[in-house]
Design goal:
396 residues, 11 helices, 85% helix
Amino acid sequence: MSDIILLVQIFMHRWSCNRKGQAIKMQESVFDENVDYLYQVQTDLEAVEQLKKEMAECRIQEKNLKKSIASEEKSIQDEINQTIKRRKAEIEKVYDERIDVNKSKTRSVWNKRDKAKSKRIGERVSYETSELAEENRQLQVEIKTLFKTQHLPAFSRSGFFYALFMTRRIWEIPILILSIIVAYVGVPFLVYIICLKSIFKNKPEWLPLGCTLIVSVALFIISFIYILMMNTIKLRHYETLLDGRHIRDEIAANKRQMKAIKNKINKDKDDSQYGLDKYDDKLTELENELADISAEKQDAMTVFENETKQVLTNEVNDRRLGNLEDMKARLETLEENMMVLDEDIQNSLLAVANNYGAILGKEFCTPEKVADLISLMEDGTAETVSEAIAAYKGAG
């Protein structure tokens, strides 16, 4: 490139020195010049074209260098962001692990406290309902002894028996209704299915009569058993069953009272009577520890944001900004050279226009056209510039 610039400078110097004789030269006209004149024109035009090629290459270098600088700047910023993010996550992880350990210990203490409280509540419920529980135990012994004395079966002491034969309470009514549905709807339907699928499977013509008979027998047996128990147990031992009802009512009343006591104890928010101080002290200690860890984490994050982040940024910049500055310096030097080169191109174009454009015309101020004129003169087609131009136009 320096050789081209030197050539252009020589060309510009010659042009400057010959400006005084340009008027005389133009008056005499160069159309009678020989091929040497065209050689000089060709050299000057090729020098200008070479400068343009150099400028095009410089523009490509400038574009690539700017792209490399932008890529490097983005890469540096990405590394800074990733480094800051990674280091911040590492710091947070340390404190988060301590917080997780603290919360795990807190849950463990709470579980132990709840178990201890449940045990103490159970002991309190047992203590405060002990009299009622003992009374129910005695009533159970009393009703059992009473029924054994009268030679009544154990089934007759059950709630199901009283629901079927001495219905009184609200919850006994659904049991009675459900029992009737099962006995007088469910059993016949089951018998019908059995008859259809098994007994009369191969003799369907016997199904209506046979099924009716079987269902009737089943219903008769159920009704017979009910009436039999009604006569042999309820009617004969009505007074005993009535006494049993009273005892069962007392047991139920005691159970309701025991349930009320239990609900009252469970709703009691005062835990001081259960001796849970050691658990509460441990929970307070863990709570204070959690607050300290959270405060330490906040302080660490503040230091990171105010100090560590800048340190990490400086570390990456110190390591990578040197290369970036070198590229920027090369770009600056390239741009300065391009300014000089552009100025040389403009001056060269002006010199060509003044020296040759006004004489040969813009049409023949290109290296290709001049080379064609030189060929015409070298092969003997023309001896002067004017003859070469005429021959070129004629051939064209």
